[in-house]
Amino acid sequence: MNNGEFEQKNRPLRRRLTVIGIILAIVILLIFFIINSNAVNVWFKSVLRLFRPILAGLIIAYLLLPVFRFFERRIFRNIHPLGLRRTFALICAYLFLLLIFVLLFLLIVPQLASGITNFLATREEYLQNSVTHYNGFVEWLNTSLGKWNLTQSFLQSITVEEVSNYLKDLISDVQKLADLLKQLAPSATPGNMLSAIMGTVTGITHAIFSFFISLYLLASKERLYAQTMKLRRALFSDRVNARITRVCTVADRSFGSFLEGKLFDSLIIGILTYLVLLIFRIPYPILVATIVGSTNIVPIIGPIFGAIPSALIVAFEDPSKILPVLLIILVIQQIDGNIIGPKILGSSNGVSSLCVLVAVMVMGKLWGLWGMLVGVPLFATVLDLLDTFSKDRLRTKGLPTTTENYYPPDSPLDPAADMQSGSERTLRKWESGVLRLQKLQANGKKLSTGEKLSVWFYEKGRKLSIIPKISAEALAQFAAEEAIRSEAAKIKETNSKTEN
């Protein structure tokens, strides 16, 4: 046996050993990170602190890229030369970003200042109303429990004097704690003042550097792409480059789709919250809607972060509105989680609710708020790559690649139906009904007003790309269902004639 035949014979074994080695290395690294999570976090945060301006510039450029492309390719597409067009697009993109920050400032700060001013001016009346509402709630609770022969002792009626004395003691304790902290770490020393000044200067410097880095990235994105591809071609083989491109494409799709979908979803939730608050005459509707919409960007935990400050802000004006505003936020978040969110984000990240919960919990524990924001698209990227890898391996083995084929034989669920979300099943049912109505209409049957409206809304949704195109599998399933229904109708008609 010559060397060529020996090499060809042992190539599968070498490839299998390489895959096993990579898997073992990943497992060992994960175990190391878990055991030394604190040290790894300290090292990671120091690296982030060192490269903070560069990372901030990358994030700004990535978020502004769709806006920049819109201005360059749509608004200013007829302006020549290209340099002038790109300059106008860059100016408009950054003005758009500045406009968002200005609008948020104008929406939040004036109303918040007005609420605090009104609270300070009417704090005695506010305290009296709060005590009255609380005692009314305690009386209602005791009456309701009394009907069932139950008693409760954890809530008792209070008086204004008791609350005033408690608040005075609390303020006194807070003041004592502040004085103690000042004695332990006096803030007026020249060293602390110099550190504060240097920290402020460093923050401003980092912000300026981040701005110019993002500006350079957007202005020279084609050149940077060419330089990166040149370096990749020099360092890696075509096969490795193809895998790198695949990973980058999946990551860009996961992060980009998640961010765009989440921002659009949060905008809808903010507008919906504002309209509902106006209907129920809740104080500070713009401020509360802005807070709810902004915190909605964070999955799962965001609504809780938005509900607590919203309730406190409303409490400044009218304590009786605390429960209604919490119920409104709860109902809107349920609508978002079950209807709006899956429609916007369901096809963009492909992550189940369990994976979203795990992603937010794990990444939030590791990296805090930033971990919660990037956890879902990061998990989506990993799951997409794992799905692609598993499908390639299954094709190599000649096995089916769909998950439906791997349900247990004794499963009481229909695999195809179980793999679809509730919104997908509703859409498929609506599609089948519309196709049936279109078939009846083509055969000359007159439709009712409701049936015509259903067909019209569906066709308009298809034209506006709100409703996705019907897949070949859905059309085949509809044809099979119609054939079965037609055969059943013929058998029923035959049986009725025989009985007659």
Write up what this structure looks like:
It is a single chain. The model has no long low-confidence stretch (mean pLDDT 76). The chain has helices spanning 3-35, 37-50, 52-75, 82-121, 123-146, 160-184, 190-219, 221-235, 238-279, 285-295, 302-317, 322-349, 353-396, 415-418, 422-442, 449-463, 472-499. By secondary structure, it is an all-alpha fold. The protein starts with a helix and ends with a helix. It has 17 helices and no strands. Helices cover 83% and strands 0% of the residues.
Helix content: over 70%
Mean residue pLDDT:
76
Distance between the termini: 84 Å
> What's the SSE pattern?
HHHHHHHHHHHHHHHHH
| Poorly predicted runs of 5 or more residues | none
Largest sheet: none
SS element count, helices: 17
Q: Which class do the helix and strand fractions yield?
A: mainly alpha
Backbone CA Rg: 31 Å
Could you list some keywords that capture this structure?
83% helix, 500 residues, mainly alpha, 17 helices
How are the SSEs placed, and which strands pair?
Elements: H1 3-35, H2 37-50, H3 52-75, H4 82-121, H5 123-146, H6 160-184, H7 190-219, H8 221-235, H9 238-279, H10 285-295, H11 302-317, H12 322-349, H13 353-396, H14 415-418, H15 422-442, H16 449-463, H17 472-499
Helix pairs in contact: 3-4, 3-7, 4-10, 9-10, 9-12, 9-13, 10-11, 11-12, 15-16
